Amino acid sequence: KKMAESDFWNNQETAQATIGELKSLGAILKPLDEAIAAADDLGVLVEMAREDSALAGEVPAEVDRLEKLVGELELKGLLNGPFDSKGAILTLHARDGGTDANDWAEMLLRMYIHWAQKNDYEVEILDRQDDIVAGIQRAALAIRGPMAYGYLKGETGMHRLVRISPFNAEGKRQTSFAAIDVSPEISDAVDVELRDEDIREDVFRASGAGG
Prior knowledge:
Blueprint: H1 12-51, H2 59-78, E1 87-94, H3 98-118, E2 122-130, E3 136-144, H4 148-152, E4 157-164, E5 173-185
Antiparallel strand pairs: 1-3, 1-5, 2-3, 4-5
Helix pairs in contact: 1-2
Protein name: Peptide chain release factor domain-containing protein
Pfam families: PCRF
Domain Peptide chain release factor: 47-155
């Protein structure tokens, strides 16, 4: 209804926020519709297979498809936090491990970009600091699309890699660390209602000489 209004696009930021909300809703409704359709198709196929045994071999594949769709719905049902439907800001920092840690951080960066693109998310590199030898010292990504934050929030924390270092002439085992932080991308266009009863004014006075 809002999009039909003549002044909808006057405020680009508000318009984009509204479209983002619609996409998030669509990301939930689409797999639900697909699961319902798959269940209907399976029911029809089972009935037809009773009349034609040649169709019985197609039933397992349809069951697998329905189970996959239901699994996706169950996962989305778990992503019900207040910001889970939002886009995500993901930052990476190389930690202990020297050059290996920098290389590990870049490996993670490529992995997250690949995951986002594979799932049709928009990816924007906000910041990247390359190391002079190999890898990166830090990077920041905006991953935009429905449920991006919900899917990625569990990545927050320290990620460890243990391997034979390609940067060590003696071929020693090296443990490397990279820190990941994920936060929701929240539009400035979001309206925040502040009621008078929610505002408290505190007054502090100095008790000693000279303040």
